[in-house]
Each structure stands twice: as structure tokens, then as C-alpha cells.
Write a structure and sequence with these properties.
Blueprint (H helix, E strand, L loop, with lengths): L1 H17 L1 H13 L9 H14 L21 H26 L5 H30 L1 H16 L11 H16 L14 H19 L12 H21 L3 H19 L1 H13 L13 H6 L7 H6 L21
């Protein structure tokens, strides 16, 4: 009996996971980005389409910064409860149809199945929230690195027109963060050296910015440091920033901070997270495409998948980011 009950529970989990991608896609398209708003779609569309996407508008403000740090990323506790309730209702409906078809009586296996559907749904929702959270929030430290890099290359009065690709900035941030983590270790004196391929890409994209300047499209770039010297300067600044920050924390907060950094370290190195992050980055530019966040299968099936590979984001300047955006005004929703 126990094995049958467990099988029913796992069956419910499997069912909810199997429909996670189409469910996520449908909710995102028809509820959160509803083109026609009514009593059902008005509030979700305002919260997501107007506020979240307005505050985290890519490419300039895809990461959390001073303009959007007040904008909510997560669903409210009430929304989470509603998701669980809908999952329970769906599981009960499926189980009820099975009972009618098989003419069996209701038992503990049926409760286990419904519980499995709810558990699987909350597992998928948790994957969504975790992934979506770090896609935007991990950028707080990226922005610190990017700003120092941009100011080092352009000067302390950014005009918002300097541009580098997201993959390049991601790789620069990862390289510098790993060096910050190495602070105090035996190999610390060598942390200011960088891979030739990374330096070459930075030099190439800096040259692109210079060419744009020669065509009169942006202000003169005050590029006075070579790529390696610039990255060494940023690394030194971030090491000092981290050291000062840690000394200001209590022991409990320092432990929490280090756990967070360890999570981010693994995410930065994860090809899966990089793929999902780039996929979602393009969604914040083209709202009707790349609608899946954590389970992108449905985008491919429905033809809403736009290319978001590292190669595309590296080579197409339309997707490039300003590392030191001068924007400081808080985002607010325009009144109708």
C-alpha cells in the first residue's frame, strides 16, 4: 500500500513538471503580458508588464540598480497561495476524472496524487523564482564592476553611450569576482593577470566604440588605460570594496553574505544559468518572445524563441550594454 501511495504522489509530481513549461508560457503570454486587459488580466499585467518590465527594461536596466531597486521582482505571498490552490484544484479534477472513469472509491492514494501535483507545482515555481531572482539581483555586484570599468575607460562623467556586449561583461565580472574570492589566499599576488582571450575581446569592443566615436555618434572616449591595466584597476577597487563591506558586517550577516556569494559563484559558472539568463535578457527587450523563464521548451514549440546565444549577444551591438549608465532617476509608472 505504501508503494502504491508513493507511486501516486510521484505521478502527481511528474504530471505537474510535465506541464510546467506550457503553463509558464501561457501565464506569461496571456496573463502577465495580456494585450487586452479585463477584470482578470488588468492587475497581473500592470504588475508585470508595466512595473516589472518598465523598471527592468533591457538592455540598460536589466540588472537591479538605483533606478529600479524598489521594483518588486517576486510574486506576493497571496499569489503563491493562489498558485498552490489552483494546483490542488487541478490535481483534484484530474484525479476525479480518473475515479469516474475507473469507478473506484476515493482513498489515500488520491490524496497523495493531489499532494504530488501541488508539490511538483511548488517545486517548479521555486525554480522559477530562484532563477528569476538571481537573473536580476546578481547584477548589483555586476553593476559595481561595470561602473568602475566604464569610468576607468571613459572618465568619471559617463554619457550613457559606451557599449560592451553582455557576454563580455559577464565574463569580466566572473573573472574579477573569482579574484575577489581569492583575496587572502596564497595565489593572491597573481590575481591581477587575465586570460589573453578576455583582454582581446575587451580591446576589440573598445576599438568598436572608438570607431563609433570617429563617426560622430558618441562623445570622445577618455581611454587612457590598456585593457589589462583597466581590469587590474577594477579588481583592486572591488577587493577593497569587499574588504570594507565585510568588516562592517556582524558575524551572522557576514555568514549570510558569504553563502550568497557562493551561490552566485556557482550560478556564474553554470552554462545552464547563463543560457537561461541570456534567454530572459532578450525577453526584457522583446516582451512577446522568450516567454519561458526556467523551462524554455514551449518557446521553441510555439515559435516564440528568439536567438539569445553568447555568439548573437556578442556580435550584435543592438544587444550591447552601457557599463556605467548615468541614469539615477527612480523608475515610476507613467499615469494614464
Amino acid at each position: 500500500m505504501l508503494s502504491q501511495t508513493l507511486a501516486s504522489f510521484l505521478g502527481g509530481v511528474a504530471l505537474s513538471i510535465s506541464i510546467a513549461s506550457p503553463t509558464e508560457w501561457g501565464i506569461h503570454k496571456y496573463l502577465l503580458h495580456a494585450q487586452k486587459r479585463n477584470w482578470l488580466t488588468r492587475i497581473p499585467a500592470q504588475a508585470h508588464d508595466d512595473i516589472h518590465h518598465g523598471g527592468y527594461k533591457a538592455p540598460a536596466h536589466y540588472y537591479r540598480d538605483i533606478t529600479n531597486e524598489h521594483v518588486t521582482i517576486h510574486f506576493s505571498p497571496g499569489d503563491v497561495g493562489l498558485i498552490a490552490a489552483i494546483a490542488a484544484a487541478f490535481g483534484s479534477a484530474v484525479d476525479g476524472a480518473y475515479i469516474l472513469g475507473s469507478r473506484k472509491s476515493i482513498g489515500i492514494d488520491d490524496a497523495a496524487f493531489v499532494g504530488g501535483v501541488v508539490s511538483g507545482t511548488m517545486l517548479c515555481y521555486g525554480c522559477y523564482e530562484f532563477t528569476h531572482h538571481y537573473m536580476h539581483v546578481i547584477g548589483q555586484r555586476r553593476l559595481s564592476i561595470n561602473r568602475i570599468l566604464g569610468d576607468t575607460l571613459q572618465g568619471n562623467e559617463p554619457d550613457g553611450k559606451l557599449r560592451f556586449s553582455k557576454p563580455l561583461l559577464d565574463d569580466i565580472c566572473d573573472a574579477i569576482e573569482r579574484k575577489v574570492d581569492a583575496y587572502g589566499e596564497k595565489d593572491y599576488p597573481q590575481i591581477f593577470s587575465f586570460e589573453d582571450s578576455l583582454l582581446k575581446r575587451l580591446e576589440q569592443q573598445t576599438a568598436y566604440n572608438r570607431r563609433q566615436n570617429s563617426q560622430g555618434e558618441i562623445k570622445p572616449l577618455l581611454i587612457q588605460k590598456d585593457p589589462e591595466e583597466a581590469l587590474a584597476h577594477v579588481t583592486s577597487a572591488m577587493v577593497n570594496q569587499e574588504d570594507n563591506y565585510l568588516h562592517a558586517l556582524s558575524k551572522s550577516k557576514r555568514f549570510k553574505h558569504k553563502i550568497g556569494r557562493r551561490i552566485q559563484k556557482h550560478l556564474r559558472a553554470s552554462r545552464i544559468f547563463q543560457y537561461l539568463d541570456n534567454h530572459h535578457f532578450v525577453h526584457h527587450i522583446r516582451y512577446t518572445h522568450n516567454l519561458n523563464v526556467a523551462f524554455p521548451l514551449m518557446d521553441k514549440i510555439m515559435g516564440t524563441k528568439l536567438k539569445s546565444s553568447r555568439k548573437v549577444l556578442e556580435e550584435d551591438p543592438r544587444y550591447w550594454l552601457c557599463p556605467n549608465s548615468p541614469d539615477k532617476e527612480l523608475f515610476v509608472v507613467a499615469k494614464a
